[in-house]
Design goal:
By secondary structure, this protein is mostly helical. The chain contains 14 helices and no strands.
Length: 320
């Protein structure tokens, strides 16, 4: 092959690799490794057929840069955790965006059913929430403290217990997705009905705004991450039901890998939600504006992390 043809055939690839090396922080390490292999192959060809050319010199310099980046620049090559949370998590969120949407719709639909059912059947509230919880809440409402249930127990004990319980619910929503999405659907539906029924109880006694100012201090994040975990479970289940051109096992493995990344991203939010419920919600009557600010900030954080940022990176990296 003539050198000019060799250059013409590969120049776009080399420019792309050079750009990857320049912007290494935004590039998957596996991509950089693949680039290095391609460079060494092209360099070997150039050394054989164009030993004195500038093309060989260019490829040699580029290969050295790639080698140093992958094998010698430990600070960069070991920065996988940073890359995971800056890029890989958002790529995984983007890849399962439809199951995440389905999870949200299931939860909202179940919440509506819970609210409406409680409105037309007085016994439904006690059936779902239990007599003890309903009686305690009604007593708190009459005492002028509708969300008084969140003031029981110690701060640390409450935060820890709540965090563990939330993680348990999310884990079930995720892992039960392996049963063809049915288990995940049940978790989302049952929790949605409970939330709708819970809100109707406060609506019935005309204290819904005050109750919301307390519940959603932690509930904004808590319920969001349960929905996200449900989306992860649906992604796994759907990969078995609809494997596309892959085998069901390969489809399941790929979906589980992506869903697991998304689930890991919820861990900090679970901790935040537990902390808010244990340390902040109990003081909801202190300032309505503080409650509103916390709810708004929590909402913005969830929307940014799971909708806006993935869309931004998808546009940048051309994710499908």
């Amino acid at each position: 092959m003539r050198e000019a043809s060799f250059i013409e055939r590969n120049k776009e690839k080399w420019l792309s690799i050079e750009n990857n090396l320049t912007n290494k922080g935004d590039v998957n390490p596996d991509t950089l490794a693949s680039n290095y292999i391609e460079l060494t192959n092209d360099l070997a060809y150039a050394q054989t057929f164009y030993p004195q050319s500038k093309t060989k010199q260019y490829l040699n310099e580029l290969s050295i840069r790639a080698h140093q980046l992958i094998y010698k620049d430990q600070k960069s090559s070991n920065n996988k955790i940073s890359h995971f949370f800056k890029v890989e998590v958002f790529e995984a969120i983007w890849s399962i965006r439809r199951p995440l949407l389905y999870s949200l719709l299931i939860f909202l639909f179940a919440s509506l059913i819970g609210f409406v059912s409680a409105q037309y059947d007085e016994g439904f509230v006690r059936l779902i929430l239990g007599d003890h919880y309903v009686n305690m809440t009604v007593d708190n409402i009459k005492a002028g403290n509708p969300a008084g249930v969140y003031q029981d127990g110690s701060n640390w004990g409450g935060a820890l217990a709540i965090t563990i319980n939330n993680v348990k619910v999310a884990f079930y929503a995720f892992i039960l997705g392996a049963f063809f999405s049915l288990g995940t659907g049940y978790i989302l539906f049952s929790n949605g009905i409970m939330v709708g029924t819970f809100h109707y109880l406060f609506y019935k006694y005309d204290v819904l705004p005050e109750a919301i100012s307390a519940i959603w201090i932690h509930g904004t994040i808590e319920l969001s991450v349960i929905i996200i975990a449900g989306g992860c479970g649906l992604a796994m289940g759907n990969s078995i039901l609809f494997p596309k051109s892959y085998s069901r096992l390969d489809s399941f493995k790929a979906a589980t890998k992506q869903a697991s990344k998304v689930l890991i991203s919820t861990v900090p939010f679970f901790i935040i939600a537990g902390t808010l419920e244990g340390f902040v919600t109990r003081y909801y009557q202190f300032s309505i504006w503080l409650c509103v600010c916390i709810i708004l900030v929590s909402t913005i954080a969830i929307i940014y992390c799971y909708i806006i940022r993935p869309r931004q990176l998808a546009s940048r990296y051309k994710w499908s």
